[in-house]
Write a structure and sequence with these properties.
Helix 8 runs parallel beside helix 9. This protein is α+β, with helices and mostly antiparallel strands and 545 residues long. The radius of gyration is 30 Å and the shape is globular. It is built from 15 helices and 25 strands.
Length: 545
């Protein structure tokens, strides 16, 4: 009877432990990079969600062993989310049974090249997930689209992007858009089709509206009052001179707490005229905002940067039969910027591509200035006016001529901004006038085309995508981070810049030592088991002989 009671007690303990294990989920994160520790941002997004959150993950089935790691990491991340909010329901689905349905919903497959035993094969997978909440559905790409040199780097980027990808989707399906952004018009800014890609992305998080400064001539006080209702203004490549009333309106918007993102071309230099005639004149653009920016602590110079680290342009390079042959040439007036600072805006983003950018000087005036973008050490400013000709492509650059680099091309300003009209006659009277702002932020980029997407067959392409080379640059992520930071929506930036360090096997060594490790894995357990049996048998005979 005593024997059965012990069995019953043991069984009861096991049942209780299983119930507790199902009720309380806890994992201890012992990794150096804390990859399994959820941020406060994710918790703050997830905790208020009080209805069922359905997550479908299309990472089931037969796919490369390396991406089994992505499947495992995704499952573990969803378990962490479920531990915080019991409303999370997730399942892994084999996408092959519904491939057409997924593609119609915008979930495009990816082709992966895998190498096993020296043989290369190609596999198609659907690295996607969907999140559904209160009749809202958001697609999540689980495979990083960033330009990487190896598949391991792509996998690492994908895994370190998991928390941001899910937090971003949960944020979109659960939150209402509250903060507002004014896209300034009226001074020859970029047409809507050229900013469509970025504004479409921005519209997923904020409320957007066009705001034309033309009305300042008719009713300046009301125009300023209406503009002050917006949290942020974007000035995207103005080409026409600002009047004093328009400048004063923007100045007082800033001193009254409005954030601003200035994307300004200080010189006129366009690729269209260059392609038509083979050369173009780069000359100064008079926007009449030099004094405005000077009062905030920056100066846009009248020059154009040449950089040996640059993107390409496609030109005709001859004919084969009746077919024109095209070739990509490095074009030093389109610098490619890899930011090396540790600021959240620029951490973990792809290189940013600029076009005909000018240098920026910073002035001492008590404003905190953080350089976000700068040219490479092998770059130099060219004074304007200047003839820019396509024939420069054929000239081999001399590195010693490019010794005046690291010119500032983008800067973040933070502090209390002085009004440019503090000691001047005001263009119009306003009850909202302030000579100095409270703590505020603005960003100045010396290139308006940083926000401009390319056009293909009359449709806007994704911002940062070069339609000729299919190269993806980090313009969209950089600008999104900039807006998030200016509007104090910094939680998602921190997730986007999260870094983890995965350890991968050396494939070359694996292939070279394949047979040795197979023998070790097969024979070692058998030998150890035989050795254990021999020792056990020997000790038993010795004890009982």
């Amino acid at each position: 009877m005593k024997k059965y009671s012990k069995i019953i007690v043991l069984a009861a303990i096991l049942v209780v432990l299983n119930v507790l294990a199902n009720s309380f989920y806890k994992r201890f994160d012992l990794t150096n990079d804390k990859r399994y520790t959820l941020s406060d941002t994710t918790k703050n997004i997830l905790n208020p969600m009080d209805e069922t959150i359905t997550v479908n993950v299309y990472l089931e089935g037969d796919f490369p062993s390396e991406f089994k790691r992505l499947q495992t990491e995704t499952r573990q991340h969803l378990e962490e989310l479920k531990a915080i909010n019991k409303n999370v329901r997730f399942r892994f689905i084999d996408p092959l049974d519904k491939a057409e349905e997924l593609m119609e919903a915008g979930l495009q497959p990816s082709r992966l090249s895998t190498q096993e035993a020296g043989n290369v094969s190609e596999t198609i997978i659907f690295p996607w997930a969907t999140v559904s909440y209160k009749n809202k559905v958001e697609n999540i790409s689980l495979l990083a689209t960033q330009t990487t040199t190896t598949q391991e780097q792509q996998l690492q980027s994908s895994i370190q992007n998991l928390e941001y990808a899910f937090a971003d989707a949960l944020h979109k399906v659960s939150s209402e858009k509250k903060q507002t952004i004014a896209v300034i018009k009226g001074n020859g800014e970029l047409d809507d089709i050229y900013v469509a890609s970025f504004l479409r992305k921005l519209g997923q998080y904020y409320r957007l509206a066009s705001f034309t400064l033309d009305s300042v001539e008719r009713n300046p006080q009301q125009t300023l009052e209406l503009l002050n209702r917006y949290d942020l203004s974007i000035i995207a490549k103005p080409t026409q001179r600002f009047s004093e009333k328009e400048k004063f309106t923007l100045d007082q918007y800033i001193t009254n707490g409005g954030k601003s993102l200035w994307l300004v071309d200080n010189i006129v230099a366009e690729m269209d005229s260059l392609m038509d005639t083979g050369e173009t004149l780069a000359y100064n653009r008079d926007l009449n905002i030099t004094d405005l920016l000077f009062s905030y602590g920056v100066r846009l110079n009248y020059d154009v940067i040449k950089d040996m680290y640059s993107s390409t342009i496609r030109l005709a390079a001859g004919n084969v039969g009746d077919q024109t042959q095209f070739q990509d040439f490095l074009w030093q007036y389109h610098p490619v910027i890899n930011s090396k600072n540790e600021h959240p805006i620029t951490t973990n983003i792809e290189a940013v591509n600029l076009k005909f950018a000018s240098s920026i000087d910073t002035l001492k005036n008590g404003i905190n200035k953080t350089v976000l973008l700068q040219s490479s050490p092998l770059s130099k400013p060219q004074g304007t006016p200047k003839i820019i000709a396509l024939e420069e492509i054929s000239k081999k650059p001399i590195p010693t001529d490019y010794n005046n680099g690291n010119k500032i091309l983008g800067v973040l300003l933070e502090g209390q901004f002085n009004s440019a009209y503090a000691n001047r006659v005001q263009p119009f009277k306003s009850d909202l006038y302030k000579s100095k702002s409270e703590q505020n932020k603005m960003i100045l980029i010396s290139d308006g085309d940083i926000i401009a997407n390319q056009i293909h067959q009359g449709q806007p392409l994704e911002l940062g995508l070069d339609k000729w080379t299919n190269q993806q640059y980090g313009n969209k992520t950089f600008l999104l981070n900039a807006v998030n930071y200016l509007l104090d929506d910094s939680g998602l930036i921190e997730l986007r810049s999260k870094t983890i360090d995965l350890q991968f096997l050396d494939k070359q060594k694996v292939i070279a030592n394949r047979t040795k490790w197979q023998l070790i894995n097969v024979l070692a357990p058998v030998l150890l088991l035989g050795l254990f049996g021999f020792i056990f048998s020997f000790l038993r005979k010795r004890r009982y002989s």
